[in-house]
Specification:
Blueprint: E1 8-13, E2 16-17, H1 20-38, H2 44-52, H3 55-68, E3 84-86, E4 93-95, E5 100-103, H4 116-126, H5 131-147, E6 150-153, E7 156-158, E8 162-164, E9 167-170, H6 178-199, H7 204-216, H8 224-241, H9 245-258, H10 266-276, H11 280-286, H12 289-294, H13 299-307
Parallel strand pairs: 1-6, 3-5
Antiparallel strand pairs: 1-2, 4-5, 6-9, 7-8
Helix pairs in contact: 3-6, 5-6, 6-8, 8-10
This protein binds zinc ion.
Zinc ion (ZN) binds near residues 141, 145 and 182.
């Protein structure tokens, strides 16, 4: 019987999967080394926050989405707290090579001077409202990356506890489509977070503050430009092709979970060509989150926005 691939697959080289036990040992070694270096797996703030989070509920909410995309619970790559690490020096991300969620220190701005702390707390008050809501959002966002299709090819251990991969795919992100993938990830995260808040018994006051901020300061939230871009794409596809917006969004979620390679799918390529013009996908795939976030003004993105009249506020 052919083995059904898991949501996360690791290949030492093309078509040669890394043996499961080797994967487990390698990943555990990374955590062991991390603990040895930092003296603990997680910062106390995160440790106590995990106790407050209903991970079973969170898993169920992601399962609902996965099931709609044909992924059964046993194939899910939902991350439990034993595979979450944090330190003063980590920044939040999902690491596909070690299948870990790494978290930043709450309230920290790793690269910013102390004077920007004030700015951080001002922004926090205008968006998530509290540090805990912010922390919850971070976990949900990174879980969304983890449950998307993740593939590493050409993995080779290097140094003490580092590995390189020739090719890493995560959701739609496969060398390219970085910004688009982030938008889809965050849009999913917002939906799951909303459902979590509805059923988890989270403080009403905090929920109200967060929801009010969502309405009045939408552009101040993390990855708001990325999500607005995805929304603009959905809207235009819906209008031009006379399809319900929900149907398109569901298809995008499915592609994210299946690891759709957009450029290899002729149907998608021609749909985008007819809707947006010849070069749209080629230009979209080159947009990266890093260019936009770290170089200040991103001319590429601004140009893209103007050319396709997406109307995004940058
Ligand atoms: Zn992300």
């Amino acid at each position: 019987m052919e083995k059904i691939p898991n949501q996360r697959e690791i290949f030492l080289e093309k078509d040669i999967a890394e043996p499961e036990e080797q994967v487990r040992n390698r990943e555990q070694k990374f955590i062991d080394d991390f603990v040895e270096m930092w003296g603990r797996q997680n910062l106390p703030e995160w440790e106590s926050f995990f106790d407050k989070i209903d991970f079973n509920l969170l898993r169920d909410l992601f399962s609902e989405l996965e099931k709609k995309c044909g992924i059964t619970a046993d194939r899910s790559n939902f991350i439990w707290p034993e595979k979450i690490i944090s330190s003063e020096a980590t920044y939040s991300n999902y690491d596909g090579k070690y299948n870990l969620i790494k978290l930043r220190a709450p309230g920290s701005i790793p690269t910013s001077p102390e004077s920007e702390k004030k700015y951080y707390y001002e922004r926090l008050a205008e968006t998530y409202g509290t540090e805990e809501m912010n922390m919850l959002h971070t976990i949900v966002h990174e879980e969304a990356h983890a449950i998307s299709k993740n593939i590493c090819v050409g993995l080779e251990p290097s140094g003490h506890h580092k590995a390189h991969a020739k090719e890493i795919q995560s959701g739609y992100h496969n060398n390219d489509f970085g910004l688009f993938n982030e938008g889809v990830t965050e849009k999913i995260a917002r939906e799951i977070l909303e459902k979590y808040l509805n059923s988890s018994g989270w403080s009403n006051e905090e929920k109200e503050l967060y929801r009010r901020n969502r309405k009045i300061n939408p552009e101040k939230f993390t990855y708001s430009v990325e999500v607005t871009l995805v929304d603009a794409i959905i809207k235009k596809l819906a209008i031009k092709n006379k399809l319900p917006k929900d149907q398109i969004w569901n298809a995008l979620k499915r592609g994210f979970i299946e690891g759709e390679r957009i450029m290899e799918n002729k149907e998608i390529v021609s749909l985008f060509k007819e809707t947006f013009g010849r070069d749209f996908l080629t230009e979209l795939k080159r947009l990266t989150v890093f260019a936009r976030m770290f170089t200040g003004e991103d001319y590429e993105f601004a140009r893209f926005n103007g050319k396709y009249k997406l109307g995004l506020k940058l």
